[in-house]
Amino acid sequence: MKKQPVRLTNEQFIQPASSFQIYFQYINERHELHWHEFYELCFVVRGRGMNIVNGTERELRNGSLFLLTPADFHEIYSYPNEPMELYNLVFDEDLLDQELREFMFGQVAEYMVDLNATHHEIIESEFQLIRDEVQMKKPGHAILIKGAFERILLYLFRNYHDQKEQLELPVTPSPSSTLQRALVYMHHHFREPLRLEDAAKQAGLAPNYFSLVFHKMTGISFQIYLQGLRLQFAKSLLQASDIPITEICFASGFNTLTHFERAFKQKYGSSPRTFRSH
Predict the structure, then answer these.
(1) 36 in Cβ contact with 188 (< 8 Å)
(2) Each residue of 164-218: pLDDT tens digit?
(3) The whole model's pTM is what?
(4) Are the beta carbons of 67 and 39 closer than 8 angstroms?
(5) If you ran DSSP here, which 8-state letter would residue 95 be given?
(6) Distance between terminal CA atoms of the chain?
(7) What is the dihedral of CA 183, 32, 50, 229, to 10 degrees?
(8) Which contiguous run of DSSP H or E holds residue 117?
């Protein structure tokens, strides 16, 4: 049965004046479909289950490490008699410096890997270090936490590529670092009112020049690229939930239902309502 996703906010899960929060969770029931304003970095220490991300099922087991962005929605549950214990580090953009953000998100990737026993031990110790430092708050704790956090992300990045037959192609054939910053921003903020001027600012370019560079590097206009991100998200949401189509329209970043339905039919060959019923 399809579900209505719940929106989880920064205020609910991240303490004021902080950019992250770490939890150790015990999952023996289904956490229904939801999305969040923050990033979520999870590591399964014990147990088995399923993570359904943007409508796609991904099995979880001991050593599963995955990252969700504010542009993702998911539900998670454990298998019968195999409850999962996992670390869950939720954080906002402030914890990602620009270099790391570009490094991780300069290409399209859904980061989820299954670590071997050696890497499992290493990553579990990194999460434990973060948890201990948060609790004890000894001098220098912020530096240690940031280091452990960045090492986890780099392990995730490397293992993601090691476990694929070949490296994922970049979003663009050879993106400049300035355009890459804009693409990263677009992929994580497409559900919001996003103007060409906003993306150009991320790239540090004048809007008109940014528009020319964007088209040259991607082969399509800024608006077409942005609309494609929104339509893909809407398509996944139609498949995974029973949210009313009007709500999906606005949740995906469209301003009017008419525009959404016309764009969806043009891209996928049927209206959102027909697509869902098939």
Answers:
(1) no
(2) 754 444 444 344 667 878 888 898 889 899 999 999 998 899 999 999 999 988 8
(3) 0.78
(4) yes
(5) G
(6) 15
(7) -20
(8) helix 117-136
